[in-house]
Amino acid sequence: MPSCPVSLKDNSYDGRILNEPCSAELQKRLVNLLTTSSIMTSMNLPVLHYIAAWKDNRTDIWYEFADPRFCGLFTSRLHLLAPAFRKAIVEQKVYPSDCDALRVEMLEPQALNKDRSILRNKNIEDGISEAIYKVKLQDTSHIWLKDQARLEYFPGDKITLSVGVLTPVSREMAMEEALRRTEKALSQSEKQFRDLFAQSNDAILLLNPEGRILKVNKKAEELTGLSQEMLAGKPACDLFPKTEQAQIRKVRDDISSGRSIRLETLMLKDDGTLSVDINARQVINTDNPMIQAVVRDISIHKRIEVERSKIEKFDMLKTLAGGLVHDMNNMLSVIMGNLSLASFENDLPQGVATLLSRIENATANLKNITRKMLVLADADTGMRIPGQLHACIHKALDMLGAIPPQVRLHMDIPVILPAFTMDKKGLSEAFASIMENSLDAMPKGGVLSIKVKGLRIEACDDDEPLLLNPGDYLAVHFTDTGSGIMEKDLPRIFDPYFSTKNRDARKGTGLGLSLAYAVIKQHGGQIMPLPQEEGQQGTTIAIYLPLS
Length: 548
Fold this sequence. Notes:
- The chain is α+β, with helices and mostly antiparallel strands.
- It has 13 helices and 19 strands.
- The strands form four sheets. The protein has a seven-stranded antiparallel beta sheet with strand order 2-1-7-6-5-3-4, with helices on both faces. A five-stranded antiparallel beta sheet has the order 9-8-12-11-10, with helices on both faces. A five-stranded mixed beta sheet has the order 14-16-17-19-18.
- Strand 5 (128-136) and strand 6 form a beta hairpin.
């Protein structure tokens, strides 16, 4: 091709194409573009005009024209502007073909260098190029420039011209970055909420205003024993006993009026009930109001409270019993001493001797009561020696005397049991007191079962309802088929002199179960009534004795 003369009105041209052989078509087009760009630049518009070019091998890119302000950003001459600009690019955002112009994708420099040829091919194919650059200036500050260009290819010369403008968009990009940070924070916040919802140690139920379950977390499935699929759409009232449902419906109405509610109630699980604490409130979202109920299982907490109440009662009793026993023993010693002296008298009338014998027997029984009160006072009157539980159970049966013929005794006791240090007399009396209560509850006959088994409590048994420390235990269950114990009376069955029998029908001292409680506690164990299985009558008193 012949050399193309520079056909511009001044000598400011510093490009390459017009100083080398090129087609007339390319020469004419470039001259027109250079003239137009010069005119546009002279108007001092808020954009930077440029004309870039590259050949098919695409190993080099240069500028045929650039707004002096563009060169000034990098303090560079035109022929060095392309490498200076490329080096200054920190980030580039490109417009995806399937996105609107307000959404852009980020390309880091490494990814940009890798995909540069792909992007350039696509731009040539489309005839347009759009991108946004974050550029580092000489003073280390940064600006954003939006690049919009039209591409023209001249096949005879194998040269592509890129005619475009750079628009400063730092403010817009700062706003977009702030929006993205906000969206990211919202996304993280939503993820954290989902994680908290899923991993919460409390059961969380989301309900619609009518009280039907919309969604629950994993803990709610564990608490109710029902899966998410089984709970979805279920009325929340169905999770509670019928006696509690009226209260639950009232709570729902109160929440709908904008109140936050907290209450303790019972929840159904596995044909039984759990004590739960519910904290519920209304949640307003973008669609419809919902009810959020946070449900915490407080069954173990309630058991601990009951146990603490028992301990507090017995602490007061210890002080009272200790003082009474001291005073009573002083008086009993005087009475028994004088009775002994009186028995040495000769020629006592027969009636007087009989009366003295009765007084002596009554005094001996009173002495036995004071000994039991000493046990309640935690005086630990028994001797602790290694022994077997079999002996205590058989001794307790001997204390009871003959079992009524209408009562059948069933014993499930292993032949070999580990020995442990015990107060044999105290445990025997405790067992006898429990069995005596069972016999009283079966006046028309029934079955008294005694079952012994080994039990190991692991340190990880957080849900263990027995309130036992980790270790090995012997579990002794006394079960009768009698009238049972009403739920309202359960917290008081170990109280001294508490009884559900008529006062005239009472037998013994009224210290039976209280004595059993004190003896088991002195051995570091636990004693409690256990719930009966569905359809089963009677009472089970369970004792857990530590082996070490």
